[in-house]
Amino acid sequence: MSAMSKIIKEMEMKSLRETFQDVRDLVVLTVKGLSCHGEHVLRSTMRKKKIRLKMIKNSLTRKVFGELGIKVEAESPYWAGPTVLAWGAGSIAELSRELDTELKLPKNAALYKEKVRIKGAIADGQPVTFDLALKMPTRTEAIGRVVALALSPATRILGQVVGPASRVASQINTIVDKEDAAPAPAATA
Questions:
Q1: 16, 68, 112, 146: which sits with the fewest CB atoms below 10 Å from its CB?
Q2: Burial of 29 by CB count in 10 Å (0-12 exposed, 13-18 middle, 19+ buried)?
Q3: If you ran DSSP here, which 8-state letter would residue 50 be given?
Q4: CB–CB of 84/27 below 8 Å?
């Protein structure tokens, strides 16, 4: 290997480190035979949704991911053939859903058919199936679930306290209403 190619590879790896330093959620794609128009449509649509796409060299990215703690095995199908990484959006679920929607959108489906294929996803640095990534909750959904779980015991306790208290209050109101409705005793002179 010449000194120049070694320098270029180091520059590419440095760029990959800087790009993926804080990225833990990705979708791994294969893009093969996509027309210029198709690529433009895909990239511009994803850019509007704050999703970035990058064609990578598998061997260099595999090394950089290892350094960054993203654990994708060297024999993984993620590294087979041409690879494009997608990242951005708020979570792996949002990213996956946006890509899935774009690839299945009727007006663009013919552009991408058999040319853009999803290999899988990486969630928090670990490989997962794309189907699982689609089903994961978004950040907002996860926070909502946690809040609901946290409030659930308090809601049950409140129901147990308020329920009997409202029954007692209802019984007191019934007694008071009966006393008000009863005729007053006649006064004797």
A1: 146
A2: buried
A3: T
A4: no
Report phi then psi at 188, rounded to 5: -100, 145
Contact 51, 99 (CB under 8 A): yes
85 with 53: CB under 8 angstroms? yes
pLDDT in tens, 50-78: 999 999 999 999 999 999 999 899 899 99
pTM (2 d.p.): 0.71
Distances (CA, A) of 170 to 146, 157, 159, 174, 177: 35, 20, 16, 6, 10
* HSE, side-chain direction, 13 A CA sphere, residue 167: 5
pLDDT at 163 over 80: no
Gyration radius from the chain CA atoms: 31
59/27 Cα distance (integer angstroms): 18
